[in-house]
Amino acid sequence: MMRNDARDAAWRALVVTALLCLACSSGQEAPVEAQRTATAPADTHAPEGITVERVRASIAPTGGARRHPLTLVRFDLSRYRPRLFTARANGGSRTLDRWVREQGLVAGINAAMYEPDGRATSYMVQDDVEASPLDDARFGGFFAFDPHPGVTPAPAAMEMIGRDCPGFDLAGLRARYRTVVSNYRLLDCDGHAISWVDANRYSAAAMGMDREGRLVLMHSRTPYRMRELAEMLASPALGLRQMVFVEGGPEATLIVEEGALHVREVGLRRDLPPGIEGDDSTLWSLPNIVGIERVVAEGETGH
Description:
The chain has 303 residues and is mainly β. 13% of the residues lie in helices and 36% in strands. The protein has 4 helices and 19 strands. Strands 2, 3, 7, 8, 9, 10, 11, 13, 14 and 15 form a 10-stranded antiparallel sheet that branches. The protein starts with 5 loop residues before the first helix and ends in a 9-residue tail after the last strand.
């Protein structure tokens, strides 16, 4: 949801316009050399099925920005599954902590950039309802999940694929999954970095899959050019196979609340003076999020 304040509204419009006009398209995507990134030990508070990593950014930020670690949270899909929640279908926009709490979720992250009316800027389909029906070729990454019941052979818990990857078939994804969302890509079909042409720097939230088939939620509080962030995420040490950009700036948010594990990552505004970060951690109201919920085994009781 857009802020009412004129300055915030103008800033939001600038970000969306810049990303739509300058971000990579299928004709501009080219892998770049990845740097190896050191990975910190996993968070010991994480329950079984969740791995939290704080990864030292291998590229130094510019403009006096602090070098925050990249946060990666990996989910075992036999224990956790993604679901799409939208303002239109689920009672309006709200901050991510409220989405997580009110929907009984384990975690949440932005689903996609959005228009002033809350519709996703990119293609978004849920339960055969085209919440955002435009399939824009500039959005090259597709995240499909929540399999249709009764489909044989049974689909995987989720699929993430690029428009130019072998076997891509949007109609086939829709036939197998109840939810399909498209976004700009950070990594290509083989996990190589995509070279964005957008020279602006943003805090960023992203979603992906690793080579073990786990869902990965990523957040960078430090503003980077997206080609720099992609280069770091392509490090072989991280083992990522696909990754899509879902939001930039102060709206980019990642929250995990599971037992003793608490992760809260919030993006920064672009208009902060160089070297000044302060306590800029206000949560924005979001219209579309991907929430993570526990898989309830047969005979167990859910929330």
